[in-house]
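Components:
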Amino acid sequence: ELKVEQNPLFLSMQEGKNYTIYCNYSTTSDRLYWYRQDPGKSLESLFVLLSNGAVKQEGRLMASLDTKARLSTLHITAAVHDLSATYFCAVDEGGNTPLVFGKGTRLSVIA
Amino acid sequence: NAGVTQTPKFQVLKTGQSMTLQCAQDMNHEYMSWYRQDPGMGLRLIHYSVGAGITDQGEVPNGYNVSRSTTEDFPLRLLSAAPSQTSVYFCASSYSIPAPGPEAFFGQGTRLTVV
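Structure:
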């Protein structure tokens, strides 16, 4: 059974600081996704990582995937208030297998 | 381009009532799924479908039924609502592999309260 664990679950960080969110998963999948959710809203796709060593960047966020370690990271550079949200990673095992989500990391960026 | 449309956005049910949550997508995606989101639990899969006429159970299927008669629609039925089904429900769709853009697209959610 595929399990996905994120840490930390809660993160309060100051504006301008850097931090990393970790996503571990239990199978040999090479398909990992990061989503953002604002309070009361739906999920928005941030990154799709489909191979070992994949790295994608968008603004102050950078995601990477190490399939051998079964680990993905979401790195936040010089945080700003607008990044406050809940971030989810999700994994599937390819084919027609469903997405399995981590419990999410609630990020709060404070001045 | 509407994407994934869920209705209703909010619903209050009494214990024992039944209802159907609607989900429609206009992207010709084969894959559709229903999740529920509860505080501290992330998103848990209820049911999913890999194409018209094909459905399968997810992690938490009890108390819910689905059908997939068309590619576009994937309704979720609560047969006899219970307070434990109070949650936010999300419908998602995506292409199957191989295809471009494998990420799932989510509807806006249905906030359901069972009293």
